[in-house]
Amino acid sequence: MTLLSVNLNKIALLRNSRGRDFPNVCDFARKNIDLGVRGITVHPRQDERHITNQDAYDLGAMLAPMKGIEYNIEGYPSDHFLRMVEDIKPDQCTLVPDSPDQLTSDHGWDMKTQFDEVDAICQRLNALGVRSAIFLDPDVEQVQLAAQSAAQRIELYTEQYAAKWGTPMQGAVLEQYRAAATKAQELSLGVNAGHDLDSQNLADFLCIPNVLEVSIGHVLTVECIERGMVSVISDYLAICAAGSQQ
Prior knowledge:
Layout: E1 3-7, H1 9-16, H2 25-34, E2 39-42, H3 53-63, E3 70-75, H4 79-88, E4 92-95, H5 111-128, E5 131-136, H6 140-147, E6 153-157, H7 159-164, H8 170-186, E7 190-194, H9 202-205, E8 213-216, H10 218-227, H11 229-243
């Protein structure tokens, strides 16, 4: 079954807009877990505009004793970020090449020019017992280079797929992702995916076999506001379960 990892960044953004601890990020993590979610993701950015460093620590303390719940911290591997990951030791750390002033993640690592940096950090994570994953565009050449590094998984950046879903380009773009995922699996890399996946386009994406994890936050949060959290989480879990049977 593909793991659904719910990204809580937008819950933190709502909290920060009012200046008090409501909604509480840990409370929303518990609500998701109570509904059957088995993965929690946060992306603490350097300016702490949504998830704060303290949120990351608080979630780590809450999730550590919970059996079968995966904690994924993603972000740019600054020295501060890596020290935090070393303190918390989440199940997975996903490295994302975003700059401090970037609104949202919009590209994967360029393993042609950044291989040494990424490889060294992945080695550091693996030595901690933290699974290393790297954000990557659906490019077979990039996947081949990633497989030569210490990265254990890739997370395919899916904005291009989401933008073309429902258009005549959907099939061709999906095949790019299928080719990248297949090559990664052939080279013993696990495959995750995330960015702008939603309850409409996710099922088609999961026709790609053996996607281990999808990280979804922004649209899922909006859908929860529109339709209710119980209904939305149930729908996502059903899609993830069906995808694994393709």
